Amino acid sequence: MPKDPTTSFMNDLNRELNNSTMGDSDVRLFKRELHAKMKRAEQGLLQYGKNAKTDDVYELIRSRRELLELRHDDVTTVDDSGNMVSRLSRLYFTERKSHDGELLAVAFYTKAPGPLGVEEQNTHIDSARGRLLSHIAQGR
User: Fold this and answer.
1) How many helices (H) and strands (E) does the chain have?
2) Which residues 6+ apart lie within 8 Å of 15 measured at CB?
3) pTM score > 0.85 for this model?
4) For 13, how many CA atoms within 13 A lie in the half-sphere containing its CB?
5) Region of 101 on the Ramachandran plot (φ > 0 left; ψ -120 to 50 alpha; else beta)
């Protein structure tokens, strides 16, 4: 039986942060910033749209517009060579018409910036959409 997307989301978040080489204080700061951004989303204070360059929340065409993407662009880790590597964090969520005022977190992933991260991100979107469809199929 598939897990509840919110449980999967928290597992994703913890896995991605555990795999990073961010210090404890950076992880706490990141979680606080993400939480604040999620609260702003709940309050309708973020800019929604189709422009990935300017909008806080991006409508994902790849997901058939069933998912929205909340971006956080400041996760930095260290690779095996000791070089600093930027990672872009993405929270995938939806606003279901049947649950007015509720945001459902579906998945959280980090990806490489630029063209290198596009295929990685497509895999993440497909996985998040699969979770959402499974959740809906269970009548939740």
Assistant:
1) 3, 5
2) none
3) no
4) 19
5) left
- Contact residues for 57 (Cβ-Cβ < 8 A; gap 6+): 41, 46, 47, 48, 49, 68, 69, 70, 71
In the block, residue with structure tokens 């309050």:
43
pLDDT in tens, 53-78: 666 777 777 777 788 888 876 667 77
The amino acid occupying position 38 is M
Residue 44 CB coordination number (10 Å): 8
CA distance 8 to 135: 11
φ/ψ (deg, to 5) at 20: -80, 170
Q: How far apart are CA 15 and CA 89, in angstroms?
A: 12
